[in-house]
Amino acid sequence: MIFSLAHLYVLTGFVLACVAVMTAADRTHPRRLGSALFWGFYALVFLVGDLLPPAWLGGGVIAMALIAGSRGVTGGTHAAPTLAEYVERARRLGNRLFLPALAIPLVAVVVILLSSKGKIAGVPLLDAGNPALAAIGLSSVVALALACWLTRETPAQGVREARRLIDAMSWALVLPQMLAMLGLVFSDAGVGKGVAWLATHYIAMDIRFVAVAVYALGMALFTIIMGNGFAAFPVMTGGVGLPVLVGVFHANPAAVAAIGMFSGYCGTLMTPMAANFNIVPAALLELPDKNGVIRAQWPTAMGVLAFNIVLLYFLLPTP
Amino acid sequence: MAPDVSLWPLIGVAVIIAGFVLRFHPMLVVIGAAIVTAFAAGFGIAATLTAIGTGFLKTRNLTLAIILPLATIGLLERHGLRQHAQAWIQRFRRATAGQLLIVYLGARELAAALGMTALGGHPQMVRPLIAPMAEGAAEARHGPLPDRVRYKLRALAAATDNVGLFFGEDIFVAFGAIVLITTFLHEAGIAVDPLKVAFWGIPTAGAAFVIHAFRLWRLDSALAREMHDAPATAETPASGEHGEHGEQGVSA
Question: What is the ipTM of this complex?
Answer without folding.
Answer: 0.83
